[in-house]
Design goal:
The protein has eight helices and seven strands, in the order H-H-E-H-E-H-E-E-H-E-H-E-H-H-E. The chain is α/β, with parallel strands linked by helices and about 210 residues long. The protein has one domain: Vaccinia Virus protein VP39 (Rossmann fold, 3-Layer(aba) Sandwich), CATH 3.40.50. The protein binds S-adenosylmethionine.
C-alpha cells in the first residue's frame, strides 16, 4: 500500500469524521481556501456527499487540476475548484459558508506579505461565513509567525486563538487533530523517500464560531 492509499483511506474515514465533528449542519456550504491537493475537501465530500457544496480554492493551477481529476475519478461532484487571488481575498458573497477551512495556510515568510496575509484571511472568513458558521484553522510553523508589525513573534496556540478571537470569533475547544500533508506531495521528500503516513506531523485544529 502506498502513502497515497493511506491518504485516500484517511479522507474516507478519519478525515470525514474530523470534518463532520466540526459542524452540526447536514448540508453545509464549505470553503477550503488554499486547498493544495484537496485532502480536507475530499474528507468533507466523503463526510457529506451530494448534500454539501465545497469550493476548493488555490492559486496554483496544478493543484486545481489534481483536485478536479481526483474528484471526477471519485464521482464527487460536490467539489468545485476556484482560482485564488494574489491578495487572499475571496470572491464570495457575504454570509455564504457554514464552514471555512484554513489548513496550513498561516505562515510567516516574507513572500506572503511578511506573513500578514493571515489577517486578510481572517477578515474574509468573518465576512463570508454565515452567522453561526465555523472557522477551522490548522496552523503549523507557529515559530515563524510575525505579528501585525511584521516582527517575528513566537506564536503559541493561545496567542493565535486570542488574535482570531479579536476579530469577533468565539473559540470552541474541540480537541481535533489535523495532518500536515505537505511532505506527501513535496518532490524533495518524494525523492528522499522514507515518508510514511504515520510519520506525518499532526497538529491541533482550532475551531471558532462566528
Ligand atoms: C502549505 S499548502 C496547504 C495545502 C492544504 N491546505 C493542506 O493542508 O494540505 C498552501 C497552499 O496555499 C496555496 N496558496 C498560496 N497563496 C494562495 C492564494 N493567494 N490564494 C489561494 N491559495 C494560495 C498554495 O498554492 C498551496 O497549495
Amino acid at each position: 500500500m502506498s502513502i497515497f492509499d493511506d491518504v485516500n483511506n484517511w479522507e474516507k474515514k478519519e478525515g470525514a469524521e474530523l470534518i463532520s465533528s466540526m459542524i452540526s449542519v447536514s448540508d453545509p456550504v464549505i470553503l477550503d481556501y488554499g486547498c493544495g491537493a484537496g485532502n480536507y475537501s475530499f474528507a468533507a465530500a466523503n463526510a457529506f456527499g451530494k448534500k454539501c457544496k465545497i469550493s476548493a480554492v488555490d492559486i496554483n493551477k496544478q493543484c486545481l487540476d489534481y483536485v478536479n481529476e481526483k474528484a471526477a475519478n471519485e464521482k464527487l461532484d460536490c467539489i468545485t475548484t476556484v482560482v485564488g487571488r494574489e491578495d487572499y481575498k475571496h470572491d464570495f458573497e457575504d454570509n455564504t459558508f457554514d464552514l471555512v477551512i484554513y489548513a496550513d495556510m498561516f505562515h510567516g515568510e516574507e513572500k506572503t506579505y511578511g506573513g500578514l496575509h493571515r489577517f486578510v484571511m481572517i477578515e474574509e472568513a468573518k465576512r463570508t461565513l454565515k452567522k453561526g458558521g465555523v472557522l477551522a484553522v490548522l496552523p503549523f510553523h507557529l515559530s515563524n509567525f510575525r505579528d501585525k508589525d511584521k516582527e517575528k513573534a513566537k506564536y503559541t496556540y493561545k496567542k493565535l486563538i486570542d488574535e482570531i478571537s479579536g476579530y469577533g470569533f468565539t473559540y470552541i475547544e474541540k480537541n481535533l487533530e489535523g495532518i500536515h500533508f505537505e511532505k506527501v506531495y513535496s518532490p524533495y521528500y518524494q525523492q528522499k523517500g522514507g515518508v510514511t503516513f504515520e510519520s506525518l506531523e499532526r497538529g491541533k485544529f482550532l475551531i471558532f464560531g462566528k
